[in-house]
Amino acid sequence: MTVPASGDRVTPFICITIRAGIRMKILFDPAEWKGLVRPVPFLKVLTIFITNRCNARCETCFYWQELNNQSQDLTLDEYRQIQAKLPPYQDILISGGEPTLAPHLPDVIETFIHRPEQAITMPTNGIKSRQIRDMVKDICERRPNNRFVVGVSLDAIGELHDRIRGVPGNYDKAIETLRLLCELKPEHPNLRLTSLTTVFDENHKQVPELLREMARLDYVDYLTVEPLRGAPMKQGLRAPLFYELRKIQDLLHELNVGLLSRKQPLEASTMLSHIRALHREQQRMLESGRLSIDCKAGTVIGVLEHDGQVRLCEMFEPVGNLRDFGYDFAAIWNSPAAEAQRRYIKTKECSCTHCVNIGQSLPFHFWPEFERLMEKRALERRVYIEREAAGVKSC
Ligand SMILES: C[S@@+](CC[C@H](N)C(=O)[O-])C[C@H]1O[C@@H](n2cnc3c(N)ncnc32)[C@H](O)[C@@H]1O
Ligand code: SF4
Ligand code: SF4
């Protein structure tokens, strides 16, 4: 019998918890019981890099080497096969490339989103304003009960933004996109808007002005900033120093208090404290070069790429392609290659400031009970999915 490594999520049809000083878990799925037991993961966030196509050339981009190459996108039918075999998962984050250049975007979201508590998050470069508005509207209409967060990337005001992004007029187009998206909000209360600002040495002095301008325009529900990470296209760019970032994050907090308490009062305090905790960890990481918490990428966060590759973290090499594994995500997730990367992540040698992965890891650190809650919810979901598949009406 395999005892899953700590952090692996399983479907606990039979779950024996032995408490003897140390909590040991022996979890297995009788359906898989044929000599060896394969742990079933649980994903809190599934990141889908839906396309590698992009109409910009950002000097910051960590994904630049993958952009616009000829690898073949998964078809909608392939996505459906993947989803049907996917272990329990909660939220999805759509990324890329420019996600709105994927014509099947609304269909893929519809394929992966079935329960009201699932959230969808999607960044966009905001270049094709009307096309983005139409796609976002379509998704809101198809999934009206799911929180849908659309983030428009803005790294500076005007020409500096255009230069960073390699697209003349990008700033004006991104602002127009936010304006058009804001018009959708009265009809689609599930829609949330945010701005996404990557902070690095070339723009950090201009970022405060940008944030104030975004707050003045009043299109977004809240603002976000993210320090540069990974290997950007333009060599030599560097992340801000921790005290440079702290100054920006303090301003952002002040502006977010105003925006959120007015626009999303029910969510304001949870979101503000989550963002604050993330910021503190990012500052610590930039100062010391090492995370103080365990990163949960590769255990409860996973990446699926447009051509079927699976990664534990977008900064790591792929561990397999779903096209070679019969579209079975768990088979790749539990492979020796994945286990080796998981062991490496535990060493914290790769420590970074990734907002999604670190943000999602924080609750596991501050509240160990969160793991057990996740297991319980994974089981409930598995039962729900099986009842649906068996045609049992849920109440
Ligand atoms: C890779 S992009 C994909 C979505 C879309 N193309 C866009 O630019 O919004 C996702 C987000 O990562 C940000 N980003 C790009 N390079 C980054 C880097 N090296 N470090 C941190 N964030 C980065 C982008 O600005 C964007 O907000
Ligand atoms: S950051 Fe986004 S818009 Fe810019 S090059 Fe990368 S994928 Fe394209
Ligand atoms: S610390 Fe950073 S590089 Fe390492 S697994 Fe987490 S997100 Fe990826």
Task: Please explain how this structure is put together.
By secondary structure, this protein is α/β, with parallel strands linked by helices. Helix content is 41%, strand content 17%. A nine-stranded mixed sheet has the order 8-7-6-5-4-3-9-10-11, sandwiched between helices. A two-stranded antiparallel ribbon has the order 1-2. Helix 6 links the parallel strand 7 and strand 8. One iron/sulfur cluster (SF4) binds next to loops.
Distance separating the two termini = 36 Å
Provide the residue-averaged pLDDT: 88
Give the ordered list of helices and strands. Answer: EEEHEHEHEHHEHEHHEEEHHHH
Major beta sheet, strand line-up: 8-7-6-5-4-3-9-10-11
Structure annotation, total helices: 12
Derived from helix and strand composition plus strand pairing, the structural class reads alpha/beta
Largest sheet: 9 strands, mixed
Morphology: globular
**Based on DSSP secondary structure assignment, what is the total number of beta strands?**
11
Uncertain ranges: 1-35
Portion in strands = 15-25%
Approximate helicity band: 40-55%
Rg calc: 21 Å
* Unique ligands: S-adenosylmethionine, iron/sulfur cluster
Per-chain topology:
Blueprint: E1 14-20, E2 22-28, E3 43-51, H1 76-85, E4 89-96, H2 105-112, E5 120-124, H3 129-142, E6 148-153, H4 159-165, H5 170-184, E7 191-199, H6 207-217, E8 222-227, H7 242-263, H8 265-288, E9 301-305, E10 309-311, E11 320-321, H9 329-333, H10 336-347, H11 355-366, H12 369-389
